[in-house]
Amino acid sequence: ETGVTQSPTHLIKTRGQQVTLRCSSQSGHNTVSWYQQALGQGPQFIFQYYREEENGRGNFPPRFSGLQFPNYSSELNVNALELDDSALYLCASSYTSGSGTDTQYFGPGTRLTVL
Amino acid sequence: ILNVEQSPQSLHVQEGDSTNFTCSFPSSNFYALHWYRWETAKSPEALFVMTLNGDEKKKGRISATLNTKEGYSYLYIKGSQPEDSATYLCAFPNTGNQFYFGTGTSLTVIP
User: Fold this and answer.
1) How far is CA B39 from the centre of its chain?
2) Taking CB atoms and an 8 Å limit, are A42 and B31 in contact across chains?
3) CA B90 to chain centre
4) Residue in B closest to A3 by C-alpha
5) CB-count exposure of residue B110 (10 Å: 0-12, 13-18, 19+)
6) Separation in Å, CA of B99 to nearest CA in chain A
């Protein structure tokens, strides 16, 4: 059990709406990364937060934004939802960032469906 | 965008068979190579973090090797069991914090 939790498990939204996904990191982990996994693909890096600041971003538009809080929780916000945003969203926490050698501990994901 | 490739895409083996699959990654600017196991309806679980060329790691019946010069890693499962059925993902961190994942190898072990 990794100790990383995500909510909700499943979510259905309509195109144009906004959504907030939540992640509770493992205690003591000051880094959280968010990934999008579309059907048939591997997880794609969205962005990473380290000590409440964005610390790297993948190829995702600005309508994908995030927050990290001092209590090891974080949020992924997506505005103006599009059909292609339908995917599994994973968060992963780690103790530090930047070395590439730290193990990332994943949550079970939130399945977002955009109709 | 870096290209991390895994093969085969899926694999069906009989219980007791040994199997292996491949992860290919860019051989330049190497930080580490991560392997994960992802069972259906569960969280991806870290298996190995490999950092040195020639590294070989083992966890029970699962082992992995690393060749950073040619840009590949092999994952081996000896005597496959039904509980080994999962998707196996490799991830290549670039600039230290941005992980690029392969599409995974889906393993089904038939009892």
Assistant:
1) 14
2) no
3) 5
4) B43
5) exposed
6) 6
Cβ-based neighbour number of residue B11 at 10 Å: 18
Retrieve residue A33's tokens.
């990364």
DSSP E strands: which ranges in A26-84? 31-37, 44-50, 53-57, 64-68, 73-78
B94 confidence band (pLDDT: 50, 70, 90) = confident
Calpha distance A20→A18 (Å, rounded): 7
Which residues in chain A are contacts of B100 at CB distance < 8 A? 45
Question: pLDDT at position B96, please?
Answer: 59
Supply the pLDDT for residue B27.
Answer: 84
φ, ψ at A20 (rounded to 5°): -125, 125
Neighbours of A51 (CB within 10 A): 10
- Chain A positions touching B44 (Cβ under 8 A) are 90, 92, 106
* pLDDT tens, chain A, 115 aa long: 458 999 999 999 999 999 999 999 988 888 999 999 999 899 999 999 988 999 889 999 999 999 999 988 999 999 999 999 999 999 999 987 667 888 899 999 999 999 9
